[in-house]
Specification:
Blueprint lengths: L1 H16 L17 H17 L12 E2 L4 E5 L3 E11 L5 E8 L4 E22 L2 E28 L5 E13 L4 E5 L7 H13 L1 H30 L2 H4 L9 E3 L1
Parallel strand pairs: 6-9
Antiparallel strand pairs: 1-3, 2-3, 3-5, 4-5, 5-6, 6-7, 6-8
């Protein structure tokens, strides 16, 4: 009798482990393949996802701490390195349009964001008439950063014997524009006026700075976001996240 009770209890525990993680109330699955539904669902989801979903193993994403140094080459053989970076602003990202090409298994995200990056910098080179070899605090603001993200996905059966979205690959394009302001302390030791003049030259080349500096940071942020998205997909099943039926050819064994 004792063995029987133990077996029943074990079965009940095992059954409990197969229960699906409840979908957060800010996730609104689409029941139709329309840009309007995909865009609205993404707008609704971003604030909650950025705050983190502990039950899905998703940490808060704003701010995002960069665990790598970023080095850029500027005109005049000037080299600047940025470290201990912190990116704020993922919660400001607003989808302008989200669409799906079901036959190509691709989602397209057109969005814009406002970013602030803080950290420390070091710089070595010559700007104007001055040789620089210094370091200090850095703050970079990027407004209206536009991004087009293409995500190629598939639906696979995973270890839990449920069907899940899986990111196959992704790529993006960014229009950095000129909406960037760079603020660096201690550029020229002992002269605020000279420091201000050098900083003005850097900000006059804001498009180049945005491309050289913003590119690696955006690479990092998107790679991180895609890894987090895959964790999300691995936690919640296709049937939880979509109410649009798929034909048989879309389902693949993992």
């Amino acid at each position: 009798m004792t063995k029987l009770l133990f077996f029943v209890g074990l079965c009940m525990c095992f059954k409990g482990t197969l229960q699906l993680v409840p979908l957060p109330d800010f996730i609104h699955p689409c029941a139709e393949l329309t840009d309007e539904c995909f865009t609205k669902a993404t707008i609704d989801a971003i604030p909650g996802v950025v705050k983190g979903i502990p039950e899905a193993g998703i940490p808060p994403l704003d701010p995002l701490y960069l665990d790598k140094n970023i080095t850029m080459d500027l005109p005049g053989n000037v080299k600047m390195t940025f470290h201990n970076g912190k990116l704020s602003g993922l919660s400001t990202c607003h989808p302008d349009k989200v669409s799906s090409r079901r036959e190509k298994r691709t989602f397209f995200f057109d969005m814009h964001c406002n970013f602030t990056i803080r950290g420390q910098y070091s710089i070595d080179g010559r700007i104007l008439l001055f040789n620089l070899n210094t370091d200090g605090d850095a703050k970079i603001k990027i407004w209206n950063q536009r991004v087009r993200l293409e995500v190629y996905e598939k639906v696979v059966k995973e270890k839990d014997e449920e069907w899940h979205y899986k990111i196959n690959s992704y790529k993006y394009k960014a229009d950095f524009g000129t909406d960037l302001k760079l603020n660096l302390t201690n550029l020229f030791r002992g002269s605020r006026e000279i420091s201000a003049n050098i900083l003005e030259v850097l900000n006059e080349n804001s498009q180049l700075v945005a491309q050289e500096f913003g590119g690696p940071i955006l690479d990092y942020a998107i790679d991180y976001a895609m890894n987090v998205t895959q964790r999300f997909f691995s936690t919640y099943t296709y049937n939880q996240l979509s109410h649009v039926p798929l034909s048989d050819e879309f389902f693949e064994k993992s």
